[in-house]
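My main concern about presentation is that the manuscript never shows what a single data entry looks like. An entry of this sort, consisting of the sequence and the corresponding backbone structure tokens, reads as follows:
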Amino acid sequence: MIKRDIVYFEKPGGQNTDDTIRLAVERAKELGIKYVVVASVSGETGVKAAKAFAGTGVKVIVVGHHVGFSGPGERDLEDRYLSELREMGITVVEMSHALSGVERSISRRLGGASRVETIAEALRTLISVGTKVCVEISLMAADGGYVPVDEETEIIALGGNWPGVDTACVIKPAHSNSFFDLQVREFICLPRDKSRK
């Protein structure tokens, strides 16, 4: 039997970012985690996480929206944060979202929801928006080759109801084409109220 604490925030949102990052650092030290993936739209949360994990030996991977998410050719990561992340040697991932991608284009054009979008919505609604994000960015980091997918590797993923993060999970990562091999092994923190902003 393993006993671990889970922190429940009263409400979702960015006001939980600093606590989420602090709790993730503590759990990474406790478990000897070597990889952390963190969702960051503007890059601000990525910079905060990178600074918090500095000197711990943990590799931080920041996952942003894919270019074009907000409009054709538009990058949501702000230049000032992107520059700071690059100066710190942080890996930044901007690629199609694992739980939408091309399927979102089809559902927007033809209506209905795809099976992949249904998985995303189930995670968002039943557990938390941040849990869906944690699963998605773990897949994306694995697909990009930024985290190993061997039997021994566990990572920590941070996501949320942006801006900021409010959910942290310990995850056994997998590639998108092996989605059902991914395991959410532990929750470190998440909002108790599942309402979306």
In short: The first strand starts at residue 7 and ends at 9. The beta strands are 7-9, 35-39, 59-64, 91-94, 155-159, 167-172, 183-191.
